[in-house]
Amino acid sequence: MAFGAEELRVLRRALALALHPSPASAEDVQDCLRLAESVDEAAREGARLRAFLVADLARYRAALPGTAAGYLVLLEEALGTGYRPSPDDLAALRALRANSAAAALLDRCRALAEQDVRARLAGRTPAPRVPQSRTPLLALPGGLASEGRPAKPTEKPAAQPKPPPPVKTPRPERPIPTPGEVFPPKRKPGPPPANPSQQLAAG
Fold first, then answer.
1. Tens-place pLDDT, residues 45-102
2. In contact, 138 and 150? CB cutoff 8 Å
3. Total count of domains within the chain
4. What are the CA-CA distances from residue 53 to residues 60, 73, 131, 189 (Å)?
């Protein structure tokens, strides 16, 4: 993607604002917006052209070997746009490797295919696990501990007071019986009745 002189001026101004933030004028803002729209449109157009190129490449590949010259030109152009060769491209180049241009493209495509395989394998390889630190992190709310002072341990929440025990209603106490109530005194026997003969004599 190539920029014109005016676009380069706007791009430099945008980079300066990004590196050294300062108030931007309304003109600068409009220029940056127009440049962004132009870049987006160029990217969309590039994607459309690449799609057409890949479709043409597939048509030429399907018509091999009669279209070998055109196929090799299109394949080299596609590789320049970031196209990655497919297994069909590698098979076609192997069939055409008697052609010096096809042999050179075969070597180039094999190297790109190997790079893709390595990248996929590297992506599947699990990242090495980092052992956990044996020292506690000294951090405070809002940032790390500063000035070499250790962080205060987190205060434990205050223990909740225990609920008071339920109040028991006192039972009415029964009076303690006295010994006299428990062991009533024995009654003394009354005087013996008088002799009847004496009562009669007295009468």
1. 888 999 999 999 999 999 999 999 999 999 999 999 889 999 999 999 999 999 999 9
2. yes
3. 1
4. 11, 11, 50, 144
Distance CA(147)–CA(58), nearest Å, equals 67
- The answer to whether residue 201 is domain-embedded is no
Question: Does residue 72 lie within any of the structural domains?
Answer: yes
Residue at 162 is within a domain: no
Chain-centroid distance of CA 31 in Å reads 38
DSSP designation for 178: P
The answer as to whether 179 is a domain residue is no
Nearest alpha-carbon partner for 64 in 89, 27, 84: 89
Contacts (Cβ under 8 Å, ≥6 apart) of 82 = 50
Taking CA atoms, 19 is separated from 6, 13, 22, 92, 199, in Å, by 20, 10, 9, 50, 149
How many distinct helices (H) and strands (E) make up the chain?
Answer: 7, 2
By residue range, what is the domain housing residue 108? 5-124
What is the amino acid identity at position 46? G
